[in-house]
Amino acid sequence: MLSPPRRWRWIREQPLSSISTCLRRGLWSRHHYLWILLVLLVVCIAIQTFVAHQARTSSSDKLTGLPRLRFTVNKQHLFPTLQNIWEGLHSESSLAVNQDAGLLHTETTADPHHENEGYGKSLDNILWKHVDKNISLATGSQARKVSPGKLLQKHGDKPAVEVPGSSVLHGTRKGLIVSTHKRLMNTPTPSSVSETHINSVLTKATCNPKFHIVFLKTHKTASSTILNILYRYGESRKLTFALPLNKHSQLFYPFPFTSNFVEGVSSRSVKEFHIMCNHMRFRKFEVAKVMPKDSFYFSILRNPVAMMESIFIYYRSIPAFHKARSLDDFLDNGWSNYNASVGGNHYAHNILAFDFGFDNNVAADAEDLEERASMAIAAIEQDFHLILISEYFDESMILLRHALCWSLKDVVSFKLNSRSEQTRHPLLPNTAEKIKKWNALDWRIYLHFNTTFWHKVDTLIGQERMKTEVYELRELQGKLANTCLKDGGAVHPSQIKDTGLKPFQYGAAVIQGYNLNPHIDRQTKAKCQTLITPELQYTDRLYTQQFPELAAKLKKASKVVAPQRQHSLASARKAHHKQFVRHTFSNPNNQRAPTGSLLTHKESNDKARML
Ligand SMILES: Nc1ncnc2c1ncn2[C@@H]1O[C@H](COP(=O)(O)OS(=O)(=O)O)[C@@H](OP(=O)(O)O)[C@H]1O
C-alpha cells in the first residue's frame, strides 16, 4: 500500500491517454468532491428526462383511448365521465350503479350497435363530406349561403317565441324561487356534483355513447325535432325502437302507457329495445318492463304560455275550444267551457303534467296546488335524468349530447312541425298571466326545470363552453341547410314538391315542411331526406324495417278495406286499434284510462291526405 502523498504522485505520473486513469486522477484529486457532485447532477437530469418522457407517453395514450390499457382496464373506472355521473346520481343505490356500469360496459363491447357503428358512420360521412365540399364551394361568390339564423331561430339571449310575459319568463331563467325548491334540495341531481370535479371530468373524459334511451315525447314542445334526431341516430346504427303496436304513430296516447302497447312485447319477437320515443302518457313502472335497466330517460318542456298559444291553434277542434271565439275567450270562461271527462280535452289543461302521467285537473286557487306541484316535480326528478327546455333548444342539444356521450353531428336537426307565421297569433298583454293561472301546475313544473336546466349548464358544461358549442352546432346546421335544402329553409305545405315529405296538417295550424336541394347526388339526398322526414312517415318506415311481415299483413288488410272506403289505411288501423283497446281496457287494472275517443288526433285523421 502506498501512503496518500505517494499515491497522488503516482496517479499524476500516469499517462493521460487512458480514460480510466483520467477518472481515477480526477477522483483522487484534491477536488474529487466536485466530480461526485457532477456525477450526481448527471444522474438527476437523466431521471428527470425519463420521468417526463413517461408522463408524455401516458397522457397521449389517454387521448387516443388508452390503447395500451384497453384490454385490461375498464376505462370507465379510470375516469368517471359526465355520463357516468348522470347515471350514478340517478341510480337507486351505489350497488345498482356498479351493476349498471358493469352492464353498460359489457354491452358496449358486445352490442351489435358498436359493430354497426361503422355502418352509420360511413353513411354519415357521405353527407358530411358533401357538406364540407359545399362549404369550400360556398366560399366562392356563386354559392347559395344560408346563415344558421335563417334556418333556426336563435335562442339563448332572446326568447324563441316573443310572447307577452316572456320577459317574466326570462327573468326566471336562473332566479327561480318556487316553494317546492327547498324540499327538493335533497333529491340527488347532477347539479349536486361539484363543479371542479365535473370540469376535470370534461377535460379528461372518455365515455361510451348511450343508446338505451327513453324520450317522453311531450306535446308542442319541439319533440318531433328530437324524435327525428333519435330516429336518425338509431336507424343509422340499426338500433331497435319500441314502436307502437299495429303501426300506430303513438303509444296509444292518451291512455296511460302499458308495456303491451309496444310491438313485439306480447309476441316476444323483440329481444331488446334500444330507443322508445313516441307520444305516450308516461308510467315509469310499465316503461321499465320494456326498456333496459340502464336506459337514459329524458324529456322536454316548453313555456306554457307559448305552448298554449300553439295548442289552441293546433287542437282547435277539441270540445273545450269549440265554443271559444279566441284564446282569451276560452281563458276567461275556462271552467265553464272545460269538461275534464270529455275525450280530447286534456290538451287544453296542464298538458305537460298530463303527459308525465299526473292528474292535470287542478285550479290555481286549489289548496293542494303547491303540494301537487312538489310531488310532480319530485317524481319527474326521480324518473328522468334530464329535462330539456324548448326555448333553449340548441343549448338543450348540447346538454343532451354530453349526457349521451354523442357527437355534435349526432344532434344537428332542422326545425320540424313548425307553424307558418300566418297561423301564429300574438297574445294580448295580460293573456300570458291568464295562461299561467289556467295552467298553474304546468307553470310550476316549468319554472322548476327551467332553473335546474341552467344549473346543469353552469355546473356540468359551463357558460363559455356552452356558447362555443352552440355556435358550432348552429354553424353545422347552417352548412347542412346549404347542402340539403332548396332555398335553405322551411316552406308552406302547399309548396312541398314531394308529397311523401309533407307533414301532417291538423286543426287551424299550417305546418311547414322542406324541399330538398335538387342538385345533390343520390346518396346525399337519401341522407338529407332523413332530416326532413316528418314523424308519421318516419315511424311508418321504421316499423316496416323492423317488422316487415307484420307491415305486409297490415298493408294487405288495408288493401282489402280500400275499395269500400276512401280512408283505407286509417280505417284498417282504426279497426285493429278498437279491437286492441277493447281487449286491453276490459281489464279492471287499466281503468285509469280516460274516457273519450279511442283514437288520437293524429290517428283518427285521414293519413291518406298526407301520404
Ligand atoms: N328546434 C326547435 N326549436 C324551437 N322550437 C321548435 C323546434 N322544432 C320545433 N319547434 C316547435 O315545436 C312545436 C311543435 O312541437 P312538437 O313537435 O312537440 O308537436 S307535436 O305535439 O308532436 O305535434 C312547434 O311550435 P309552434 O310553431 O309554436 O306550433 C315548432 O315550431
TrEMBL record:
<dbReference type="Pfam" id="PF06990">
    <property type="entry name" value="Gal-3-0_sulfotr"/>
</dbReference>
<dbReference type="GO" id="GO:0009247">
    <property type="term" value="P:glycolipid biosynthetic process"/>
</dbReference>
<keyword id="KW-0333">Golgi apparatus</keyword>
<keyword id="KW-0325">Glycoprotein</keyword>
<dbReference type="GO" id="GO:0001733">
    <property type="term" value="F:galactosylceramide sulfotransferase activity"/>
</dbReference>
<keyword id="KW-0808">Transferase</keyword>
<feature type="region of interest" description="Disordered">
    <location>
        <begin position="584"/>
        <end position="611"/>
    </location>
</feature>
<comment type="similarity">
    <text>Belongs to the galactose-3-O-sulfotransferase family.</text>
</comment>
<protein>
    <recommendedName>
        <fullName>Galactose-3-O-sulfotransferase 2</fullName>
    </recommendedName>
</protein>
<feature type="compositionally biased region" description="Polar residues">
    <location>
        <begin position="584"/>
        <end position="598"/>
    </location>
</feature>
<feature type="transmembrane region" description="Helical">
    <location>
        <begin position="33"/>
        <end position="51"/>
    </location>
</feature>
<keyword id="KW-0472">Membrane</keyword>
<keyword id="KW-0735">Signal-anchor</keyword>
<dbReference type="GO" id="GO:0000139">
    <property type="term" value="C:Golgi membrane"/>
</dbReference>
<dbReference type="InterPro" id="IPR027417">
    <property type="entry name" value="P-loop_NTPase"/>
</dbReference>
<keyword id="KW-0812">Transmembrane</keyword>
<dbReference type="InterPro" id="IPR009729">
    <property type="entry name" value="Gal-3-0_sulfotransfrase"/>
</dbReference>
<keyword id="KW-1133">Transmembrane helix</keyword>
<feature type="compositionally biased region" description="Basic and acidic residues">
    <location>
        <begin position="600"/>
        <end position="611"/>
    </location>
</feature>
